[in-house]
């Protein structure tokens, strides 16, 4: 088998098989981890892997279809992967009292503020540019 | 082998707790689909039930996470998965990146300023206050910044997770109250305010929102790691 036909086979497998697509996500992650360790960059492997995948999509070296179904499944079930991390609270009994209540208050109020400010900033800029575009289109 | 000895076997523990985590998550998801209240969200209900089980069976966090760490590790490949929605929305992102940048800067400044001020008002000080500052980024970034500015990275990781749970719920409420016109704003608020957990929620709301949230989450993390030295200056 020539190299070209092996590549073609691999692409066909990837397009059909969701499990193979999940494996491909894992490969990019592992590559990202390797780059992160080799260069000592303070970036997690997942982010470097994402940048690699994005670069390959943009360069045309990899079709989005060969990752799409696996990626959609991963993103839909992503909340599951956060569940075990929450149990770290078991090691911080000091947070189950007044201090915990105060910290809860800080997080709720601050997060609400962050979300409102972010959303309003983006939305007001959006309306302004829309208005601006509409104005210049008329003129 | 007696049943008690079998129960102490690490492999059995790992299998039991992994299975319990997955099943309780699936159950919580079903319940939430049936009764969509914010306080019934799977990310709050599943860990609460697991915590009760762990306390009842006298299992420590170390024993629990030893068997379930592989689930947390899957966040790595899940991060890679964001390449797909970001690639698909590239035209929108290319056209609108200045808006996203404005939102990210405004949101990050608000996060640091309000956390600091609220902690000050409530009498939370020292390392604890510093540990609260970087909590709206995703964990690896937040821990990096926390160490940099003199907080306790482990504690920051706990605050990050709490912010994710609270943020996914608060985000829904904010979305319902604010008259937002653009999907950009809806995605950005989750990405800046509640990192991965918020992004997962945004992804359930819509593809465009999810893509924007994912992109913004990553960029906010990068921006804050780069700006951490400046934050230190600001606090002196």
From TrEMBL, chain B:
InterPro entries in UniProt:
CidB/LrgB
The portions of this protein that span the membrane are 12-28, 40-61, 67-87, 99-122, 155-176, 211-232
This protein's membrane topology, according to the annotation, is: Multi-pass membrane protein
Localisation: Membrane
Output the Pfam families linked to this UniProt entry.
LrgB (PF04172)
Q: Which organism is it from?
A: Bradyrhizobium denitrificans
- Please give the name of this protein: LrgB family protein
Keyword annotations from UniProtKB, A to Z = Membrane, Transmembrane, Transmembrane helix
